[in-house]
Design brief:
It is a single chain. By secondary structure, this protein is α/β, with parallel strands linked by helices. It has ten helices and nine strands. The strands form two sheets. A six-stranded parallel sheet has the order 6-5-4-7-8-9, with helices on both faces. Strands 1-2-3 form a three-stranded parallel sheet. Helix 3 links the parallel strand 2 and strand 3.
Length: 258
């Protein structure tokens, strides 16, 4: 493995070695080799408690846990002129199985059995023909202002992932004051308070996702409270805090006071 044969063999005079681990990337190589990179003796930095627990479970030391932040200058609430006759539900699209898109689509099918005025909105890379419903409103790789407008055009954000190292989209939706329904994966337990700042369900459970979406549709007061609390809560997770902590870790391990 290149990481093992190259980085680990640099001499000490090349400087301290840090390893920013943002996912348990066992799809990128044999598990024993991936795990071996975490045990090389580098300064391991992880972005979620979930990752910290995995590394410690395989005997790898974790030097720091630094949660990702959300860019509050880019993601914030703005008036979008939503159609009151539609319930717009936003969901990310990714082709990887562990992103849970199939679970999200199944959940939406369940919701549509009760509510016919559901509009599915998705964003991400180009999907394969026939992979998504014909009536989906799809936004191809939106960024910046366009992505913020997509969030703000919707009533509920659904994050159906089966596995994440962190999981940024729910943070972005919360920063736009959109009520969030999510699975309990990656850093979600680190930055969400279940039933207060978002509705949370286990992964691989479309029925539970659907029921949480229905709860928000049927209880407008709860939906607004979730959105408001989520918005106020997520503002504490900034990139400034994350980068300040990362800088302190660098200084500590290089013998500087900073």
């Amino acid at each position: 493995m290149c990481f093992d044969t190259c980085c680990n063999k640099y001499s000490k005079n090349k400087g301290e070695k840090f390893y920013l681990i943002q996912h348990y990337e066992v799809w990128g190589g044999p598990r024993e080799m991936v795990d071996g990179t975490y045990r090389l003796g580098l300064h391991n930095i992880v972005v979620s408690t979930w990752l910290k627990n995995i590394l410690e479970g395989i005997g790898a030391k974790v030097d720091a846990l630094i949660l990702n932040g959300v860019n509050l200058d880019e993601f914030y609430p703005e008036h979008s002129g939503r159609d009151d006759n539609e319930i717009r539900i936003l969901m990310p699209y990714r082709k990887e199985e562990w992103k849970g898109v199939k679970d999200g689509l199944k959940a939406l099918e369940i919701v549509k059995m009760r509510y016919k005025n559901i509009k599915l909105v998705m964003f991400g890379p180009r999907a394969r023909r026939g992979e998504l419903p014909d009536d989906v409103e799809f936004h191809l790789l939106p960024t910046g202002d366009k992505l913020r407008r997509v969030y703000n055009s919707c009533d509920i954000f659904c994050f159906p992932s089966r596995m994440e190292g962190s999981g940024l989209p729910p943070m972005e939706a919360m920063a736009c004051k959109i009520p969030v329904v999510t699975t309990n994966v990656g850093a979600v337990p680190d930055y969400i308070i279940p039933e207060k700042t978002a509705l949370v369900s286990p992964p691989n459970n479309p029925e539970a996702l659907a029921q949480n979406i229905i709860r928000l549709i049927e209880n407008e007061k709860k939906s607004k409270k979730i959105a408001e609390r989520g918005y106020n809560h997520i503002k504490q997770f900034t990139w400034d805090k994350a980068t300040d902590k990362l800088e302190r870790i660098f200084w500590e391990h290089t013998g500087h006071t900073g």
